[in-house]
């Protein structure tokens, strides 16, 4: 069943020097799957997630969540849809308000959407729910009175995940959820995400530039380059038989931990950084830093 | 599978423990302790002035004009800090002057802080035309010398304590607005604001919950600077005879009166000047300490 549908989605930035950040993207995400969105830095991945979360207005095209066009929704209806799609962002150091305690961070979605969670009567229930969420992501509920700066990157990312799950969403957008973490912590967070997906029937849109991670988690893969999708397919197809030359290039760029195999691929395949377009190596940095 | 987190010691931080750390950090800064003590004494003096002054600050005694402080030759124990040109007791007058100074300082900072913070939050968060409009207003305000504006307004509307606070408050909002706006500009691109918007948190809640608490540290600093500046500005206005009515005792007014006698009776001008200096220094030092404490990362250890 289709949960999320992007149709001809396009986003341009700048009036005089037009930059096309997302170029006519059409993509569907099915309920219960993990769709990985891969591509190099600045290819428009992040802008695409901002568009589908409706944090940015698209220049053209539509986003449908559960069959409903987000652009056509009233403010109140949009808020209701937002309950069902949550986001975990890349940088666990800037994704939390330094002045809020863990409890308030995790409870924020509850307090925002559930009038019963507010006020004196709701407080006990909210506290219980927060404790359960923290436990679900493998954290000690006793940390709820602490501030984010007291935690490591991995712990913060768990708090972020707990917050994203607070409203029992259907879709979770994971924007490079592990790229700021070191490898061992990364593996544990990925395990946690897989476990939660199974238990709660979540749908993941997993944005990453790390193909090793993607291979591990994705059911389907969408490859993005310069704002446009160049290839979409099952993980097995994309990794096993990439059709687009850019996908092949990306795959070749993955470091191989076995030196003998690495040498073999280096001899046969063209170096990953060689066939660059004359138009310039990279697109200008993603301007979504100034969202809003 | 259950993931247990290996690096989590038992939770020690409770809300009360947290408040204790704030207090302890504040107390560890010796200078801050002294400044706070001085401020406390000043506030007490202002509140209790009628009870603790030895004389009515406006009672004249022309037979005892320009008496030096008690410890100088010719001084008398009856007037510890001496008397002014009309024979009024200096100590009583300095104590009474605290009232106006603190009231004006706190009132002006509160007023300017409220207006400026609101303007800065709105301009920074919403951007676009509200931002352009508000910041142009701020430029216009800045182009006017504050004391001149104060003179003009008081000249038109008449003098009085309320007007002085109003004028100093409404000339000081720009610095709050600018600082808050620039903080907000950098805060609103942070991921936690993006996430809050994705969750569906309303703009008002984002401003109240995510932006305002994160601008308190710079706010505390500007507010204390402003308190000190407003106290001095009030003194300047009083010195020019434009502050509050003549019968209200102010340090600025005393300075103005004492200036004539600087050569012969220095105490008439020096004591209110000293009081002014000590007050603004104490306020500034307290502000510095507050700023350090307001940052949750500062009291980690």
UniProtKB/TrEMBL annotation, chain A:
InterPro entries: AAA+_ATPase, ABC_transp_ATP-bind, ABC_transporter-like_ATP-bd, ABC_transporter-like_CS, Oligopep_ABC_C, P-loop_NTPase
Region (Disordered): 253-292
Ranges where the ABC transporter domain occurs: 4-251
GO molecular function: ATP binding
Domain of life: Bacteria
Keyword annotations from UniProtKB, A to Z: ATP-binding, Nucleotide-binding, Transport
Stretches with biased composition (Low complexity): 268-277
Keyword Nucleotide-binding attributed: yes
Alphabetized PROSITE patterns for the sequence: ABC_TRANSPORTER_1 (PS00211), ABC_TRANSPORTER_2 (PS50893)
PANTHER family assigned to the protein according to its UniProt record, in alphabetical order: D,D-DIPEPTIDE TRANSPORT ATP-BINDING PROTEIN DDPF-RELATED (PTHR43776:SF7), TRANSPORT ATP-BINDING PROTEIN (PTHR43776)
Family membership noted in the UniProt record: Belongs to the ABC transporter superfamily.
Protein name: ATP-binding cassette domain-containing protein
Organism: Streptantibioticus silvisoli
UniProtKB/TrEMBL annotation, chain B:
Main location: membrane
UniProt family annotation: Belongs to the binding-protein-dependent transport system permease family.
Protein's recorded name: ABC transporter permease
InterPro entries given in the database record: BP-dependent_transpt_permease, MetI-like, MetI-like_sf, OppC_N
Source organism (scientific name): Streptantibioticus silvisoli
Record field: transmembrane: 31-55, 100-126, 146-174, 217-240, 260-283
Membrane topology category: Multi-pass membrane protein
Domain ABC transmembrane type-1: start-end pairs: 98-287
The keyword Endoplasmic reticulum appears for this protein: no
Keywords per UniProt: Cell membrane, Membrane, Transmembrane, Transmembrane helix, Transport
Subcellular compartments: Cell membrane
């Amino acid at each position: 069943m289709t949960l999320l549908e992007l149709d001809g989605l396009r986003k341009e930035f700048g009036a005089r020097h037009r930059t096309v950040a997302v170029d006519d993207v059409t993509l569907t995400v099915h309920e219960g799957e993990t769709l990985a969105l891969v591509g190099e830095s600045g290819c428009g991945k992040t802008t695409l997630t901002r568009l589908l979360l409706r944090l940015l207005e698209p220049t053209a095209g539509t986003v449908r969540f559960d069959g409903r066009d987000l652009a056509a929704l009233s403010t109140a209806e949009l808020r209701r849809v937002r309950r069902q799609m949550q986001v975990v962002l890349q940088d666990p150091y800037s994704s939390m308000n330094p002045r809020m305690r863990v409890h308030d961070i995790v409870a924020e979605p509850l307090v925002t959407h559930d009038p019963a969670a507010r006020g004196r009567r709701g407080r006990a229930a909210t506290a219980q729910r927060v404790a359960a969420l923290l436990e679900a992501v493998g954290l000690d509920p006793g940390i709820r009175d602490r501030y984010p700066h007291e935690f490591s990157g991995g712990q913060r990312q768990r708090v972020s995940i707990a917050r994203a799950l607070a409203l029992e969403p259907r879709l979770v957008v994971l924007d490079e959820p592990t790229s700021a973490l070191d490898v061992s912590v990364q593996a544990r967070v990925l395990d946690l995400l897989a476990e939660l997906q199974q238990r709660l029937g979540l749908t993941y849109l997993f944005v990453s530039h790390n193909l090793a991670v993607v291979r591990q988690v994705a059911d389907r893969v969408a490859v993005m380059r310069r704002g446009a999708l160049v290839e979409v397919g099952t993980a097995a197809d994309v990794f096993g038989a990439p059709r687009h030359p850019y996908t092949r290039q990306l795959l070749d760029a993955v470091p191989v931990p076995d030196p003998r195999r690495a040498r073999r691929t280096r001899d046969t395949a063209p170096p990953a950084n060689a066939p660059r377009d004359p138009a310039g190596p990279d697109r200008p940095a993603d301007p979504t830093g100034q969202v809003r | 599978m259950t993931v247990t987190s290996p690096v989590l010691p038992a939770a020690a931080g409770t809300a009360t423990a947290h408040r204790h750390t704030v207090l302890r950090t504040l107390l560890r800064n010796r200078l801050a302790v002294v400044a706070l003590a001085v401020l406390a004494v000043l506030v007490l003096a202002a509140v209790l002035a009628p009870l603790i002054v030895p004389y009515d600050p406006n009672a004249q005694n022309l037979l005892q004009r320009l008496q030096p402080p008690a410890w100088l030759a010719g001084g008398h124990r009856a007037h510890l800090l001496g008397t002014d040109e009309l024979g009024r007791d200096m100590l009583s007058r300095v104590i009474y002057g605290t009232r106006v100074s603190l009231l004006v300082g706190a009132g002006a900072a509160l007023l300017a802080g409220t207006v400026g913070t609101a303007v800065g939050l709105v301009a920074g968060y919403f951007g676009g035309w509200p931002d352009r409009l508000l910041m142009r207003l701020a430029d216009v305000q800045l182009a006017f010398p504050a004391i001149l504006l104060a003179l003009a307004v008081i000249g038109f509307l008449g003098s009085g304590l309320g007007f002085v606070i109003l004028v100093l408050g409404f000339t000081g909002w720009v610095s709050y607005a600018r600082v808050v706006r620039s903080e907000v500009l950098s805060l609103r691109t942070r991921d936690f604001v993006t996430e809050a918007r994705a969750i569906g948190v309303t703009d008002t809640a984002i401003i109240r919950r995510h932006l305002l608490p994160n601008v308190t540290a710079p706010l505390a600093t500007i507010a204390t600077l402003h308190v000190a500046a407003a106290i001095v500005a009030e003194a300047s206005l009083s010195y020019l005879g434009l502050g509050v009515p003549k019968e209200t005792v102010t340090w600025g007014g005393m300075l103005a009166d004492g200036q004539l006698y600087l050569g012969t009776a220095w105490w008439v001008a020096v004591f209110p000047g000293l009081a002014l200096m000590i007050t603004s220094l104490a306020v500034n030092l307290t502000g510095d300490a507050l700023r350090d404490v307001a940052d949750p990362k500062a009291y980690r250890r």
